[in-house]
Automatic annotation (TrEMBL):
Origin species: Cydia pomonella (Codling moth)
Domain of life: Eukaryota
Coiled-coil segments: none
Stated family: Belongs to the cytochrome P450 family.
Cofactor(s) the record lists: heme
Protein name, entry field: Cytochrome P450 4g15
Protein's UniProt keywords contain Plastid: no
Pfam family, one: p450
InterPro entries in alphabetical order: Cyt_P450 (IPR001128), Cyt_P450_sf (IPR036396), Cytochrome_P450_Monoox (IPR050196)
Length: 153
């Protein structure tokens, strides 16, 4: 079976379009990663000061926390004993930095702060069940709810 000139041109133009797409995609991904990494540079510098197990690229320490909830908890306690020098341990789960605090004074400092009230992105999953109450809200709404409930303690 022989190719006609039209089939040959169509095949070569498809290949050229695909190769052009990849030639544009790869530098775009590299530039996006460089921008993403630079925008998180301050967090990486601060994370270097906290002790914790070294993570793998892209997945961090996620492979160490597989299994059931009992296994994950035991592994977390083991890591906290191994690396707990300042009352805190860092872990990377993918690109997300998790810091576990073990000193009650540090926990009290964060929980009593009126500045550190932004919630993690994971809280959005609780919104259908909990609404915009004290646990989920941030900013002015959190402050007003906090003022209402503070006298009860």
């Amino acid at each position: 079976m022989s190719y006609t000139a039209a089939e040959s041109v169509a095949a070569s133009s498809t290949w050229a379009a695909t190769s052009m797409f990849y030639m544009l995609l790869v530098p775009a991904l590299i530039l996006w990663y460089a921008y993403w990494r630079m925008s998180r540079r301050h967090m990486y510098e601060l994370a270097e000061k906290i002790s914790g197990p070294p993570g793998l690229p892209l997945i961090g320490n996620a492979l160490e926390f597989t299994g059931g909830s009992d296994d994950i908890f035991k592994n977390l306690v083991t890591k906290s004993v191994d690396y707990d020098k300042e009352g805190m341990v860092k872990l990377w789960i993918g690109p997300r930095l998790l810091v576990f605090l073990y000193d009650p004074r540090d926990v009290e400092l964060i929980l009593s702060s009126h500045v550190l009230i932004d919630k993690a992105d994971e809280y959005r999953f609780f919104k259908p069940w909990l609404g915009n109450g004290l646990l989920i809200s941030t900013g002015q709404k959190w402050r007003s709810h906090r003022k209402l409930i503070a006298p009860t303690f």
